[in-house]
Design goal:
Blueprint lengths: L6 H6 L1 H12 L5 H65 L7 H15 L2 H9 L1 H54 L3 H12 L21 H21 L5 H4 L7 H10 L50 H4 L5 E3 L6 E3 L23 H9 L1 H8 L18 H11 L1
Antiparallel strand pairs: 1-2
Organism: Carassius auratus (Goldfish)
Protein name: Interferon-induced very large GTPase 1-like
Length: 408
């Protein structure tokens, strides 16, 4: 028994179609047969147009989906590093000892590190360029923390953030498809919905697809399927590149963990004591009221010397302001009593220096440890009036470090 051949199968099979055409043309066909053949021909053309249109639409959807995923790669990477940096900054505020307090707490750790390393050049940078030294110290601490904790803390955070972003993008693609279907929309509506949903997590908009043709995409389901297929490969590629070297390089400065910490600790007052150079510890830049600092220094550390000599001062300004001694203003013969230092005007009148006769062991130890370096640096000497007391030479580094606890 012969089965009936589908007419659509005939018109998609060229050999059968051509054979049928010849057969009909070589016989005396009835008018009815010719009409049937004419209908077949018209169906052939419309079927081929439909087939070509759908193939083109599918190809456009597939290509657009692949391009979209590639365009998402850099924003995803930036978002992962940015999120991880923010999480890491919060973690370091709790777990990184030098960074888990206020500005004074940080300065105590800076002074401890300087004493432990005994690097004179770093001391001079701290004394004369305190802001730069703070920034350098913070960068070193953050870099050390990231290196030490990369496998235990940093990498797991990054992978978790990547996973969350992948889920967010997949969900946005699916919900956008549903919205298009519910509203009988097009790819324009899909894209608008998609970019809006991911905008809180990624710096990505329709502008990123400028110049990419997509108005002929009409298979939204296929577009979503392509994203589901291509996105995991993009995520895997990003994950393979995660390492300690790339972490700071992939971020804008303002988002880096060290940048966050520097902004936190360094947007403050950096005015230095006019006598010893100690930096005001107020946490507000251009703050009202007087400048102050818990730990002043031997003034010779800042290069002060006795007038008419080449001898570096061994005075401490907190002791001087309790005395009847005088100082000269720069470039002037006018003398001012230390205890009336505010009368000197300028920077002097803006400082609150409380009389303190305590030992200040830390800076006395420093002067003894680096007296030759200081003499060479300032081209002055600790002689005559500036001779270092023998008592100072008895202080140990351990005692110097312990003394910091009293002031911070």
């Amino acid at each position: 028994m012969c089965s009936r051949m589908s007419s659509s199968w005939i018109w998609f099979c060229p050999s059968v179609r051509e054979q049928t055409r010849r057969s009909l043309s070589n016989t005396h066909c009835s008018e009815k047969t010719m009409i049937l053949f004419s209908i077949w021909r018209r169906r052939e053309k419309s079927t081929l147009v439909f087939f070509q249109k759908n193939c083109h639409g599918s190809a456009s959807a597939a290509m657009f989906g692949e391009i979209l995923c590639q365009k998402l790669k850099e924003p995803i990477e930036q978002s992962v590093y940015k999120r991880t940096a923010r999480d890491l900054a919060d973690e370091m505020r709790s777990n990184c000892e030098p960074l888990n307090g206020d500005r004074s707490h940080l300065e105590k750790h800076i002074l401890k590190t300087l004493a432990e390393e005994e690097d004179f050049n770093k001391y001079m940078n701290y004394i004369h360029h305190p802001r730069d030294h703070f920034k350098s110290f913070i960068r070193d601490e953050v870099s050390r923390y990231i290196t030490d904790q990369f496998s235990l803390s940093v990498l797991p955070k990054m992978k978790e953030n990547i996973k969350l972003l992948e889920q967010k993008i997949m969900r946005a693609a699916h919900q956008s498809t549903e919205r298009v279907q519910e509203n009988r929309g097009d790819v324009g509506l899909w894209l608008k919905s998609f970019t809006r949903q991911i905008s809180d997590d990624l710096i990505f908009s329709e502008k990123h697809l400028s110049g990419v043709k997509h108005d002929d995409v009409d298979d939204i389901n296929l577009l979503e399927d392509v994203i589901k297929r291509e996105l995991p490969a993009i995520i895997s590629e990003i994950s393979r590149r995660l390492n300690t070297e790339s972490f700071p390089l992939k971020l804008d400065y303002k988002f880096r963990p060290d940048g966050v910490q520097i902004d936190l600790f360094c947007q403050c007052c950096w005015v230095q004591c006019p006598f010893c150079g100690a930096t005001c510890t107020n946490t507000t830049e251009d703050h009202p009221g007087d400048h102050s600092v818990p730990l002043h220094r031997v003034t010779g550390v800042n290069g002060h010397f006795y007038r008419g000599t080449t001898n570096l001062c061994i005075n401490i300004c907190t002791s001087d302001v309790a005395s009847d001694q005088c100082f000269y203003l720069d470039g002037s013969d006018d003398r001012v009593l230390y205890r009336e230092y505010r009368r000197a005007g300028g920077d002097y009148e803006k400082w609150s220096i409380t009389p303190d006769l305590s030992e200040l062991i830390y800076w006395k130890w420093f002067v003894c440890r680096f007296n030759r370096d200081l003499e060479k640096y300032y081209r002055k000497t600790f002689e005559w009036s500036g001779e270092i007391p023998e008592e100072w030479r008895t202080y140990t580094k351990h005692e110097a470090l312990e003394s910091l606890e009293k002031y911070f």
